[in-house]
């Protein structure tokens, strides 16, 4: 089971994105901190979120924490169980496959539209985003995960910035968070034989096709890139079920 790949609880992940504006309220600050800890795995899937315990850890009152948890429920990162309180949303291969299929449909179409409609300003922004991402990827296994995650997210957001649908961007923002959550699981098995990948080459293929205005080629490269995390975790789960390598 995918849940088995999460043990033991991993070390603290990268700090929250430094490119986000400063939180305007205590609720927003608590929301971001909780979101970060869920995405990075410091708060484990299925974990009970007890307001009376967490309010001191996050330095806010019980009412503020409940407001933050309600925002996370709307993001599907937290579930509410009636009178029994809140839990971190579970993970599963079925959920990952559904998430991946949905993100592929939305993001590849947004990329196609951006390639058709994007102007010279869009091209320059994509070039700059890819250059920043390339710098973040130069360190290979020793790269700064916080820097890479910011650059990776910025690259994906810039690629679809030529598409003028606010709903698409909003939905993809939520899907990206969930994909990032699963990616942290994949990172833990990144050094496992048979599961290596050249992420920079994947990004470069998407970038070159987009700059050449080859929308079909770019969409296919982006789809393969998004699906690979799902494929890696599916194979790893199968190997673990068959007595192969298992994170324990």
From TrEMBL:
SMART domains: FCD (SM00895), HTH_GNTR (SM00345). Residues 1-24 are annotated as: Disordered. Keywords: DNA-binding, Transcription, Transcription regulation. Pfam families: FCD, GntR. InterPro entries: GntR_C, TF_FadR/GntR_C, Tscrpt_reg_HTH_GntR, WH-like_DNA-bd_sf, WH_DNA-bd_sf. This is HTH-type transcriptional repressor CsiR. One of its GO terms (molecular function) is DNA-binding transcription factor activity. It comes from the Bacteria. Gene3D superfamilies: GntR ligand-binding domain-like, Winged helix-like DNA-binding domain superfamily/Winged helix DNA-binding domain. Residues 24-91 form the HTH gntR-type domain.
């Amino acid at each position: 089971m995918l849940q088995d790949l999460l043990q033991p609880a991993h070390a603290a992940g990268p700090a929250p994105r430094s490119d986000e504006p400063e939180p305007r309220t205590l609720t927003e600050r608590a929301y971001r901190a909780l979101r970060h800890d869920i995405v990075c795995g410091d708060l484990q899937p299925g974990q009970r979120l007890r307001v009376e315990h967490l309010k001191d850890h996050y330095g806010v009152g019980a009412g503020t924490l409940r407001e933050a948890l309600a925002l996370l429920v709307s993001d599907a990162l937290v579930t509410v169980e009636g009178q029994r309180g809140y839990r971190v949303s579970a993970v599963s291969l079925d959920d990952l496959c559904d998430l991946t299929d949905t993100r592929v449909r939305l993001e590849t179409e947004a990329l196609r539209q951006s390639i058709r409609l994007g102007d010279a300003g869009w091209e320059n922004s994509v070039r700059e985003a890819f250059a920043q991402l390339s710098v973040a990827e130069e360190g290979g296994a020793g790269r700064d995960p916080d820097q890479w995650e910011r650059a990776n997210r910025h690259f994906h957001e810039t690629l679809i910035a030529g598409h003028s649908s606010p709903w698409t961007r909003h939905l993809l923002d939520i899907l990206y968070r969930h994909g990032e959550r699963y990616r942290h699981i994949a990172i833990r098995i990144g050094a496992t034989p048979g599961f290596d990948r050249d992420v920079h080459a994947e990004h470069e293929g998407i970038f070159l096709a987009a700059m050449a205005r080859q929308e079909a080629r770019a969409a296919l490269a982006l789809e393969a890139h998004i699906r690979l995390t799902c494929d890696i975790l599916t194979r790893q789960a199968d190997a673990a079920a068959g007595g192969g390598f298992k994170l324990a």
